[in-house]
Amino acid sequence: MMNTALPEMLHCLQTPENLAGNGADLTVLERQRAQLKWLQQQQQQYQQIYFSESQFNVFLPPTTDALQLQDLINNDTTLQKLVNRSMKADSGLANEWPDFGKYSTTSTGFAGQATSFASNGLEPNSLAMGHCLSRTSSCPPAMTLPDGEGRDSVFIASVVERERMKKRKADEAQNPMVTVSEDIRDKRVKVDAEEMESKITEQNTSATISDTPPTTTTHNSNKNDNANNNNNREASSDTSKENPKAPQVPKPDYIHVRARRGQATDSHSLAERVRREKISDRMKYLQNLVPGCNKITGKAGMLDEIINYVQSLQRQVEFLSMKLAAVNPRIDFSVDNLFRKESAQTFPAPDCTGNFSTAGLSSEMANPAYLQFNPVHQVVSLDNPQEMALRRTFSAPMAVPADTFNETASFTQVPHSCSTWENDLQGLYNMGFHQQGRSSAGFPPHAFPGMPEANNLKMEM
Amino acid sequence: MASPSSFKQELLKKWVLGLQSCCSMAKDMGISERKKAIKLSADLAMASARDGRTCWSRAVIANASKQNESKILVQKILGSECERLVKASSIGFSSCNKRFTSKRILRRSCSSLRRIRRSAPKRVQASSIAKRMVKKRTQLLKGLVPGGESMDEFSLIEETLDYIISLRAQIDVMRCLADASERLKSQ
User: Fold this and answer.
1) Are A6 and B42 within 8 A, CB to CB?
2) For A394, left (φ over 0), alpha (ψ -120 to 50), or beta?
3) Chain A neighbors of B5, CB-CB under 8 A
4) With contacts defined as CB-CB under 8 Å, which chain B residues touch A425?
5) CB B43 to CB A317 under 8 A?
6) CA B90 – CA B82 distance, rounded (Å)
7) Contact B37, A331 (CB under 8 A)
8) Per-residue exposure over A392-420, b if at least 16 CB sit within 10 Å of its own CB, e if not
């Protein structure tokens, strides 16, 4: 899992994000007014505490075909990824790109902010669907206008202010749901939820999609994103995204990041902002990985903690190798014995371990007569490892006190081929991981025919 | 790798192979030599179990293959894909080094410029202090993660993530073995 799934692990912490969509047909004047209002609203929202919430305002001009936009977005996978990524970076929770095609162009008036917290962000073919909980919408049902797939609800409202008030209420009603939303995969989400309780920072991301030259209109999609994670605070909280130009342009897969007011707009600082966001995203994961790092704010303190942790891990490795070197006079320290020992320890049955400890693994006392069975052992070891692991139990009656441990001696005589090693390891792990619950009582005593003195504790390879 | 346990399994397998080859190379060793050999083989096993896919594991392999005495060990542990990995890691590492030196030159020139500029307004801002603190710690972290000198900040953090997880697995495996051998010894 670690190998391949590390990036996935980094990304799999997805919870459905509240996405509220706006689809609207507006004249330029209306749009400007709405944006003004939106900005005012913004100021108020800063003082309020929201949970993971992101508004998505899409203003569609009446002349534009919405499908164009949808095609543009759907074709543009890198764009989607990037937007998703930045959303994750903002909030620590995953977003799905809202389906733009669901916003109908025929919607009249101001299709106000959708207050639905339903999973309208899901893509139809998204694999993450299984992971994401479909949110119930917490707004008045009369307001909902679900579309064909029911994934996307568009709310049509004339008054923006009222809409926003409702949204706020709905948001507050939503909050407990967010905290209890069960995510099977990761406890990280819980951590996030806890973090939400303590420190909630608001982030504002507005995405601007500049539109097609032929129609010479602009789609503004403003996404108001509240971040829950504290280490995002230091990062610049406002970013803007701009969709590529015309859908007719053959190569629309690059992304403009646009600065909001008061921010630097040159390309360097924009790139820097994106980079910083990426870094803070990763820092968040590190924060969850390193124990005791959750409570620390500030990058320097977090780095301190990470450094300490890595150092302690490295010191632990040093210490353990020292210990191994001290304990074992020889460097290979007859790893076979260790495996036997370890596999013995994995057995829960007390008498087994007891017998093993009394056996003492005294390989010196081994009867040389057992050596003739080495071929047999080897043959057995080439079996199905699972089966082998099952059979790797005591093959002698338990009642007899074990005084010699033959098998160890016999095994050390076996020339170590690679296959036996693999089998051995396999067996060890099978025992370790699959046989925890089993006791050796289920396995019948197994006597070798040529061994009258086989009353000893014996393991079969 | 599919799961942490399979990673550990791989690690253990490779480590045991390395230990055996260590043993076959040198019969009698002092405790410090033994410790060094054990640590080296464990690190190499960790890196090779990571399959050279990450920067730090490549750096570990490259560092080990540079030294003569550990070269054989590298070959033993890596086995069949040894050549590929060593080549890839050394290439990647050397290019990283080159980039690093050029970066250092750049930094040096930048810092001299900055020194001149900074001397003019004689006030120290809090943000600059914080920035310096972060930079210092980043340098420290770069020293800790193998091959970290050549990474930029973003990849450094990613590699640190990976490195921490791998270190944890390595410690688990080593502790398992240490416990077992200790118990074996006590009897």
Assistant:
1) no
2) beta
3) 429, 433
4) 9, 12-13, 16
5) yes
6) 12
7) yes
8) bbbbbebeeebebbbbbbbbeebebeeeb
Distance separating alpha carbons of residues A57 and B18, to the nearest angstrom: 60
Residue B10 pLDDT > 50: yes
Is residue B150 scored above 60 in pLDDT? yes
Other beta carbons less than 10 A from residue A169's beta carbon: 14
List per-block mean pLDDT (blocks of 10 residues) for chain A, which spans 461 residues.
40 38 48 70 55 40 45 50 44 39 38 37 38 37 39 39 49 43 41 41 37 37 38 38 44 57 75 85 83 81 88 90 79 55 44 34 35 36 39 37 37 38 44 39 38 38 37
Tell if the CB–CB gap between B164 and A330 is shorter than 8 Å: no
Give me the residue from A286, A345, A433 closest to B160, CB to CB: A286
Residues 6+ apart with CB under 8 A from A2: A9, B1, B4, B7, B162, B165, B166, B169
Give residue B21's pLDDT band: very low, low, confident or very high (50, 70, 90).
confident
> What is the token pair recorded at B33?
């030599």
Give residue limits of the domains in chain A.
Answer: 2-289, 335-442
Token pair of A236 as six digits: 């610049």
DSSP string, chain B: --SHHHHHHHHHHHHHHHHHHHHHH-S---HHHHHHHHHHHHHHHHHHHTTT-SHHHHHHHHHHHHSHHHHHHHHHHHGGGHHHHHHHHHHHHHHHHHHHHHHHHHHHHHHHHHHHHHHSS----HHHHHHHHHHHHHHHHHHHSTTGGG--HHHHHHHHHHHHHHHHHHHHHHHHHHHHHHHHHH-
Q: Which residues of A touch B130 (CB under 8 A)?
A: 298-300
Q: How far apart are CA B113 and CA B116, in angstroms?
A: 5
The ipTM is: 0.80
Question: Which of A282-291, A384-393, B51-60, B66-75 bottoms out in mean pLDDT, i.e. has the lowest?
Answer: A384-393
Cα gap A220→A58, rounded to integer Å: 6
- B109 or A161, higher pLDDT: B109
Both structure tokens of B88: 């890839």
